[in-house]
Write a structure and sequence with these properties.
alpha+beta, Ybab, Chain: A, 66% helix
Amino acid sequence: MFDKLFQAQQMAEEIKKRLDYITVNGEAEGGKIKVTATANKEVKNISISPDYFAQADLEELEELLAVAINKALQQAESISQAEMQAATKDMLGGLGGMFG
């Protein structure tokens, strides 16, 4: 049983490492504001179109940045959940022999 728990911990660590290499993006204002993050929810880059930046007011820019960041983080969460569900399914399949 402890072997299975250890395997689960190792699998979770492997998933976390893999999520570092998956890129997600969030955009606002038709792509004029772009956010790039990892599936581990670490923002890596924020890009604002110079044309948009020149005419935007601060409040609008802040709101749209929040929109783009939240979109990227929602994608990251979806990917993370899918990875964990797949790992759990694999792990539970391996545990089936313990209870049968």
